[in-house]
Sequence to fold (140 residues):
Amino acid sequence: MSISLPPVALYRRIFTLLDREPEVRDGPMVLLPGTVRGAVALESVWFPYPRAHARTAEGALGAAGAGGGELAARGVEFAVPAGGLCALVGPSGAGKTTMLHLMPRFHDPSAGRATLDGVDLRAYSLQSLHQVIGLVPQEP
Ligand SMILES: Nc1ncnc2c1ncn2[C@@H]1O[C@H](COP(=O)(O)OP(=O)(O)OP(=O)(O)O)[C@@H](O)[C@H]1O
Ligand SMILES: [Mg+2]
Fold:
């Protein structure tokens, strides 16, 4: 007769992951879809990926950032007016996708701010923010 024991180490790792506090916190403001004009801007945005997850690639921007990781943005600045169209162009690894991912707040800037209609994205509830953003990812 054989007795199979639960894989304790596996569960421990799963619960460690589930217990992690998200770095991106919900904001108090609820966005109503009909009221969004759609002006977006990045103001002096700096963003380092955490060192533990940092990938290295040819063309990665710069040395270690304030958070200890690879800097994917240093002082990035741009504004797209409501109804405008914007194309981010640059070499592979320049940080285009990373900049885009600031809009649905997959991560927040370490300095500077990303805004929608002039309001810092951190003020919005994540659920309502995600209801007004359409995103077609580059990677499935
Ligand atoms: N999740 C991640 N964790 C750590 N580093 C990352 C992560 N995503 C991207 N990077 C690093 O950040 C830098 C910018 O990557 P990003 O994907 O934003 O570039 P990109 O301009 O969209 O490139 P491509 O044209 O190949 O799509 C690269 O050095 C990349 O290796
Ligand atoms: Mg990309």
